[in-house]
Structure formats: structure tokens, C-alpha cells
Amino acid sequence: MSKLKDIRPAQNGFSLIELTIVMSILILLYAVVSLNLSNARPRSSLNTQITTLSADLRQQQLKALSGQANGGTASEYGIYFSENSYTLFAGTSYSSSDPSNHVINLNDDLIFNNINLPQQSVIFSAGTGEAAVYDAGQNSVSLLNSVTNVSRMLTLNAWGTVISVN
User: Fold this and answer.
1) Alpha helices for 39-153 (secondary structure H)
2) What H or E segment, with its residue span, contains residue 18?
3) CB burial class (10 A; 0-12, 13-18, 19+) of residue 34?
4) Per-residue pLDDT tens for 114-163?
């Protein structure tokens, strides 16, 4: 029986020091992950808008090629740029009063900071889809994320194609 008295019951659980170390490591991991994810939305916002704008440019060019909206008769189509939005329009020039215009507003953190295009617009010629008014010195538009201060520039060629996104 004397051997039974010397046996101590097993200790269950963790010590306070072990718990403190584990909690410190978890808090540190949470801080690193949350800092990395805090810039994910602004970066994603800029890239998504660049992709959408490129697709809208292609769509307007294809409409000019095919005459999609005018019963098969080719017509000019274009995009007009302002600081916080861009407008898809039909015709040889932009008219703010045209009810068929389609305005696309940018996210609150995005602006066009450098619109280097003739009359702030790109117009695609009917039947060919080429840029109607092209100037090699005026062929780009820049989009700025005001939160991250990152800017991306789209450059067009004479055929109305996006040739670079920097």
C-alpha cells in the first residue's frame, strides 16, 4: 500500500506561460495577415476597373465595326472620359444630353488623373473600327487609385487597340 500513496495524480491542461506564448503567436499572425489584406481591395479595385475599361473599349469598337445598335448600319461609337466616370456613346462626337449614353461611374477611390486624348474621347470609325481622330502624342488615359497612390496608364494605337497597360 505504501506504493499507492507515492503516486501523484497526473496534471491536466497547460501552464499560464504556455497559453501566453501561443496567444502571442496567434495575435502576431493575425496582425500580419490583416495588414496584407488591407491593401488587397484597393489593388483589386484598380485592376478590375482597368479590365472593365479595356472590355468597354473593345465593345465600342466592335459596335462600330458591326453596326450593332443601328439595325446593321455601321455607325461611329466612342467613349468620353471625365474625372470620375466614362460614358459610352454613339455618333461622331460626345453629347452630354444624348439619352442613349451609358455612364459608368468609377469607384470612390479611383479617378482618371491624366486624360491625354483628343477632346477627352476615343471615337471608333464606322465599318473599320479605327480611332477616328488619332494623335500619337494624345493616345493614353491614366487611372489613379487615391488610396494606394498607384496609377495605371492605357495606351491606344491608331487602330483603336489597347497596346499597353503600365
Assistant:
1) 40-66
2) helix 16-38
3) exposed
4) 999 999 999 999 988 899 888 888 899 999 998 889 999 999 998 888 89
Q: What are phi and psi of 59, to 5 degrees?
A: -65, -45
Rounded to whole angstroms, the Cα distance separating 114 from 38 reads 27
Domains of the chain by start residue, with CATH: 42-165 (3.55.40.10)
Distances (CA, A) of 131 to 24, 81, 134, 157: 60, 15, 6, 8
∠ CA 14-17-20, rounded to 5°: 95
Whether the full predicted model's pTM is greater than 0.90, yes or no, is no
- Order across the sheet with 77-81: list the strands: 102-105, 85-90, 77-81, 121-124
Q: Are 156 and 162 in contact (CB under 8 A)?
A: yes
| CA 118 vs CA 20, 54, 79, 139: distances in Å | 64, 18, 11, 8
